[in-house]
Amino acid sequence: MFADLDDADLVVRARDGEDVEAFAELVHRHRDRAYRVALRITRHPGDAEDVAQEALVRAWRSLPGFRGDARFSTWLYRIVTNLALNRVERRPRVADVELPDTAVRSDDPAARTEDAERLTAALAALEQLSPDQRACYVLREIEGLSYEELAEVLETSVPAVKSRLFRARQELTAALARYDAVGREEAGT
Amino acid sequence: MNDREAIGGTRAVCVAGVPPEDVAAWVLDGEESDVVALVRHVPDCVACRAVVTEASASRGVAETLRSAPSPAAPARVAKRAVGRIRAETTVLTVVRALGGGWLRVVHALTDYTRPTNPARIDRADGMVDTGELPELDDTGELPPGS
């Protein structure tokens, strides 16, 4: 019924007509994105579920105030990111860190194992970033937001985004370089 | 020791004052700097060229992280969210349909429970009417005075 409508049309229907079904379509389109970002920031599947669900409900409640200057997805990112950062701030470090499935990038089992180990190392390094840096990095590198969108989502300036992203990239690169160095040493022994 | 040294990055500082984050954003994401035209500046600047080299290494990290399986939200996330939204909307609709009437309903309910409610005590004999039916006596008649 709503498949042909873009997000902006659905927002108008949901907001002005208070059409729950139009908003339900938005929920179905964006739930994975909301969950993915929440999971990358909180690093906890249960928290990510709560955050995604709460963000979608809050988006509905706040819809009358959404003027449509930004894309709906950007606006939702902002709600998700704020809730996820609040959640991370409120809780102690969690033990059950999400671990990735094996990333299949090669037919060679040895190369596949190596890829998976490197990915695990990269995710562990991502975990070590501050929540603000992690949010910034994930939204840029995984979700592909522009700098302007990042500034809007993170409620900061573009120069601050550049700085946060720069540091996050530096720390991740250094962590992976350490991992690669250890791997080479082990291979040489 | 500046920030770059603290993190273990490049030690040279750009003479034009271009922050390293501007150079990294330019080389990785095509973001222009407000300070200078980087396309002309970087080739001649030792410090900025070093930042370019360092920043380029982060491409591999991002690629590795992007190779992680993209987790889908469990179906219950959308189901619960939409369920909550529908429930809230239903309540709002009912309240609006009642208009000001819902206030009278609420007041009537709360008034009835008040001990000062005249409906409960306004009996000629001064007894309190609790609203309960009187018990019948053994003959099936109402007891006198009830």
Give a quick precis of the structure.
With 189 residues, chain A is mostly helical. Chain A contains eight helices and no strands.
CATH top-level class of the largest domain in chain A: Mainly Alpha
CATH architecture field of the largest domain in chain A = Orthogonal Bundle
What's the helix count of chain A? Answer: 8
Got a strand count of chain A? 0
Instruction: State mean pLDDT of chain B (0 to 100 scale).
Output: 77
Low-confidence stretches of chain B: 1-10
Order of helices and strands of chain A: HHHHHHHH
Terminal Cα separation of chain A, in Å?
63 Å
Question: Topology, please?
Answer:
The complex is a heterodimer of chains A (189) and B (146).
Chain A: H1 7-16, H2 20-42, H3 45-62, H4 72-90, H5 109-128, H6 131-142, H7 147-153, H8 158-188
Helix pairs in contact in A: 1-2, 2-3, 2-4, 2-6, 3-4, 4-6, 5-8, 6-8, 7-8
Chain B: H1 3-7, H2 20-29, H3 38-41, H4 46-56, H5 58-66, H6 75-98, H7 101-112, H8 118-121
Helix pairs in contact in B: 2-4
